[in-house]
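Hi F.,

I've been meaning to write this up properly since the lab meeting, where we talked about keeping a consistent format for the predictions we share between groups. The idea is simple: the sequence comes first, exactly as it goes in, then the structure tokens exactly as they come out, then a line or two of notes. No screenshots and no reformatting. I'm using this chain as the first example so we have something concrete to point to.
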Amino acid sequence: MRDPLSVLTDAFTSFLFGKVETTRLPVRTSTGQAQAVYLPTAAPGLGDSGVIIGREVYSGKGYIYDPFQLYGQQLPAPHWLVLGESGNGKSALEKTYVLRQLRFKDRQVVVLDAQGEDGVGEWNLVAQELGITPIRLDPMAALDMGIRLNPLDPAITTTGQLALLRTIIEVAMGHGLDERSGFALKVAHAYVNETIVDRQPVLTDIVEQLRHPEPESAEAMNVALDDVRAWGLDVALVLDRLVDGDLRGMFDGPTTVGIDLDAPLIVFDLSHIDRNSIAMPILMAIVGVWLEHTWIRPDRKKRIFLVEEAWHIINSPFVAQLFQRLLKFGRRLGLSFVAVVHHLSDVVDGAAAKEAAAILKMASTRTIYAQKADEARATGRVLGLPRWAVEIIPTLTPGIAVWDVNGNVQVVKHLVTETERPLVFTDRAMTQSSADLADDALHAAELEAEERAAAFVEHHLGDSESTVA
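Output, unedited:
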């Protein structure tokens, strides 16, 4: 029996505010039954326009991604960073992504292929399927009239040529050019461009001019001719490596005729270059500037520039600065830069930490495959990933990754079609006789991923029984 005061209070409250809602007792039930009352929900996707990557692990929805479609609405920049240890599916993702993008007629892709086996790059099969001949940069082949790229190609502006020469020298020397060396290089470059008009100027011409500067060069600055020669000596020695050293043949002649810059796919095969030598960042710099001035054009095409082993770029301050400039074309001329890196620590703790931070900031899309727990935590701190994503990264199985598209974070399983499979799985262990084993392994990975996802969701929802009000 309620006391009179409570009855009077309820009546007065009902008169002022309307009928008081009836209090409902809690119902104790299991999560299996409660899911019929509280229907499952999933985060919104990225739209239905673009290329399909696979499906979201938790919701089962198809996952579609295209930086050109999302740019300006959901993405501030179209650039993409792919992280993860070897053997987790980065390579398969890159290749299928490119193949699917090339189904659009206004797409064009350049790949810097730094890996390979059996004497060819990893992208060789994809190129063959599309009828493309890779541009194989090989010092030994170059000596026998192989592929050459000329840093002094007239297709590159005079300013671009000088910037490229400076970058090559600074990468090789490991420090910036001082004012005197820079002046000697500038004078030699200007003289070569002014006097050689009947052919393409080449690096040998620059080296020769640095060794034997013209008297006019010294008179212009009111210094002794011997001083100008001394200022340019170190520069000449560095460039001589491209002319007569271990990189000779690839850059010391006119650009090879017949390189098709209008092909839908352009593959620079760097697999014959030692990835740990100074040659790799020098190659990256030369190819980057050459493409900037000969490939990127205001013709309404959407271009993708994919770089394997990209830490060679981001870990060198001078090359990183060059590529920072290249990335800015993304907004103006429709360029999406895709950097593939094994470990984020390779770049954020390197010599170019400042430049690396700037490039990472430009990458609005991040895809992270399985990493060890310590590496995952470090990656999460740098990229600002949510806690749940950091916790799940070490548990990911091959083919599954955490995708962060400007704050929209999903766990996505990459799907490979039967047509794509022989093109993207190029490991020699993936032979025809082991195809069935590969399918079984893939199926097992899918089941394991689903079990992990269910366990993860159950852990975050609580115990098997919960109180529903």
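Notes:
The chain is about 45% helix and 15% strand.
Confidence is low (pLDDT under 50) at residues 428-442, 460-469.

If this format works for you, I'll send the rest the same way.

G.
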